Amino acid sequence: MSETTTTSAGYDAAEDLLDRRSPVQRLQSVLHTYPWLSPAMVLAVALVVFGSIADNFATPSNLGTITQQTAVIGTLAIGQTLIILTAGIDLSCGAIMVFSSMVMAKTAFDQGVPGVPALIIGIVVGGVAGFVNGMLITRINLPPFIVTLGSLGIFTSMTLLYATGRTVRERELAPVLLKLGNPLDIGGFRLTTGVLAMLVLYAVFAYVLRYTAWGSHVYAVGDDPDAARLAGIQVSRVLLSVYTVAGVIFGLAAWVLIGRVGAASPNSGVDANLQSITAVVIGGTSLFGGRGRIVGTLVGALIVSVVDNGLSLANLDQAYKQLAIGILIIAAVTADQWIRRARA
Amino acid sequence: MTTPTTPTTAAAAVRPVFQARGLVKTFGRVVALDAADLDLYPGEVLAVIGDNGAGKSSLIKCLSGAYVPDAGDMLLDGEEVHFSRPQEARAMGIETVYQTLAVAPALDIASNLFLGRERRKPGILGSVFRMLDGGGMRREAREQMNKLGIGTLQNMAQPVETLSGGQRQAVSVARAAAFGSKVIILDEPTAALGVRESAQVLHLIQNLRERGMPVILISHNMPQVFEVADRIHVQRLGTRAAVVTPQTVSITDVVAIMTGALKVPLEEQTLTPAPS
Closest to A224 (Cβ–Cβ): which among B105, B129, B226? Predict the structure, then answer.
């Protein structure tokens, strides 16, 4: 112990500055700083591969179609990213979205509520659903997995009961609810207003996470809740706000969904719950919380659509899609585990 | 909150900056604190040591607002204070650094320093768009780190998880020292660290003292205590058994006081710091 006392005043500062890392360690640290880089590389590879094996793949109109196919899951996955950043998970996001979409369609069609208020009611319903999930998680201290597994069942069932098994068709829908299905041609790329809405939402939340105190707190809470609490952050309040905001995003995704499908059906978006988690995980956000970038989620959602679209254009069996996505999920989580150990 | 005044050496011997009088804390039939006193003078490092169960940790938890004492008073700058939550103690300028490296690993140094009290940009960017003043916070973070002699850390946008344990603890200490604090409590700051990293933290404590910041250091590590402390408060059986200086007693004596084998007469104790 006497050595401690003699060296305390002059520890070797130069040693801290010396870079003795191997190239692999450097790669690890670069991926650590830019968690969206590895999904971006996967997306680039997928684009090149399908571009060379499928003739109609790399056309502006097909690439536009891919973004359209991404819009619903891409929007939903924004909310999912916020939740996963806090080390939580939401299994009910798709069910909340479909329920919101039915509320929007039916309050307008059955109750004769004008389009805009019906839309707002639907979005508020999404927010309330998220708030209830958040209350159960923060006040009763239930694990997010269990709470949202429960609400998945509840909202799925409520949707079916409320819709009485009936789809609200295009001509029955209030025009404003179909707004996000409107085509939008930008330089040959066939987009929709829904795609644009999704991109705007990504920009908003990229800003919020990067440049606001709330964003820092979301990361801090997911990173280490005890440390966040000791720093004076009200952890449950942050969590509750995250689940509520995510619920509002699920409500907005419902609007995108109606535009995409051109109808409000209780049977649409049944796979959306897990697909949103897939997009977030492939996008490089850590399931352990506190790590990831929202832009990675967009890339992750695009990867899923590209694989889906590319396989069908290349006349390959769609069964390969599940295989490819499954491998990507496991690879992404493995990479995350490795990257988390990085030292810059 | 008033800005803390830098203590002058003339005033140093006069009034304690932080004082506890007759603190009592019981848990059922267990008496953790039995009329415990503590005096912290401006600009000194006061080490608090004691065996397990001596009430060391209860005493510190009362001072930092984590416990509310059953009886007794606490005086900050001579004024009576009561804390019902750690946040209240912090608002009064009493900052605590925990052994558990309480930082958010994925956030950068500047964000950690300002965690929970972020600064927004002036004007419409800050008020409407809630934009943080990232540049300003990084600049001030660098200033703070330099003041504490942690000049090796230059990149304030570096995530904390890329730092060594000692550097992380340095970030915690810098955070505690940054916000007009009057007293810094360091609760076993080296317990989770290796030898070299502990040395960095001790170096940091010496820097804090040079800046005139009063520090309460809780530690099990006797050589460390003897290296940095001005006075040593020995806690035993829920109360203050003695206050000594490293110059007048040996480690063996202090251990003897801790275990009750040695009693120090009141007139031989160092209840106030020697005038410098």
Answer: B105
What's the per-residue H, E or C state across A78-142? HHHHHHHHCCCCCCCHHHHHHHHHHHHHHHHHCCCCCHHHHHHHHHHHHHHHHHHHHHHHHHCCC
| Fold for the domain defined by B17-106+164-268 | Rossmann fold (3.40.50)
pTM of this prediction?
A: 0.83
B207: three-class secondary structure by DSSP: helix
Cβ–Cβ below 8 Å for A4 and B100: no
* Residue closest to A195 by CA, chosen among A64, A312, A319: A64
Put simply, whether A6 touches B (Cβ < 8 Å) is no
Domain that holds residue A283: 35-46+67-340
CATH of the domain at A312: 1.10.3470
- Residue written as tokens 């999404």? A126
Residue A343: per-residue pLDDT:
52
Domain tally for chain A? 1
Note whether residue A19 is domain-resident. Answer: no
Nearest CA in chain A to B157: A33
Q: What is the pLDDT along chain B (276 residues), one digit of tens a residue?
A: 444 444 444 444 568 999 999 999 999 999 999 999 999 999 899 999 998 888 888 999 999 888 999 999 999 998 999 998 888 888 899 988 887 767 888 888 888 888 888 888 888 888 888 888 888 888 888 888 887 777 667 688 888 888 888 788 888 888 888 776 899 999 888 887 888 888 888 888 998 888 889 999 998 889 999 999 999 999 999 999 899 999 988 999 999 999 888 888 888 888 888 765
Asked if the Cβ–Cβ distance from B159 to A344 is below 8 Å, we say: yes
Q: Is residue A323 part of a domain?
A: yes
List CB contacts (< 8 A) between A226 and chain B: 100, 102
Angle in degrees, CA A295, A296, A299, rounded to 5: 95
Nearest CB partner across the interface for A223, out of B107, B151, B195: B107
Please tell me the distance in Å from B39's CA to the nearest CA on chain A: 25
Q: Which residues contact A15 (CB under 8 A, 6 or more apart)?
A: none
Cβ partners under 8 Å of residue B188, min gap 6: B98, B99, B218, B219, B220
Nearest to A8 among B106, B111, B203 (CB): B203
A11 touches chain B (CB under 8 A): yes
Q: What is the pLDDT of residue B3?
A: 46
Residue A270 near residue A65 (C-beta atoms within 8 A): no
**Per-residue burial over A141-173, b = 16 or more CB atoms within 10 Å of its CB, e = otherwise:** eeebeebbbebbebbbebbeeebeeebbeeeeb
Whether the predicted interface score ipTM is above 0.90? no
- To test the contact with chain A by mutation, choose from B95, B115, B207 the residue with the greatest count of A C-beta atoms within 10 A, namely B115
User: CATH 3.40.50.300 residue ranges in chain B?
Assistant: 17-106+164-268
Task: Give kind and range of the element (H or E) at residue B217.
Answer: strand B215-218
Nearest-angstrom CA–CA distance, A78 and B98: 35
A231-272, pLDDT tens digit by residue? 878 899 999 999 999 999 999 999 999 999 988 888 887 789
Find chain A residues with C-beta within 8 A of B101's C-beta.
227
Do the domain assignments include residue A27?
no
Give strand ranges (E) for chain A: 183-186, 189-192
Among the partner-chain residues B100, B115, B132, the one whose CB lies closest to the CB of A211 is B132
Q: Kindly identify which residue of chain A lies nearest to residue B206, measuring between CA atoms.
A: A9
Determine, yes or no, domain membership for A210.
yes
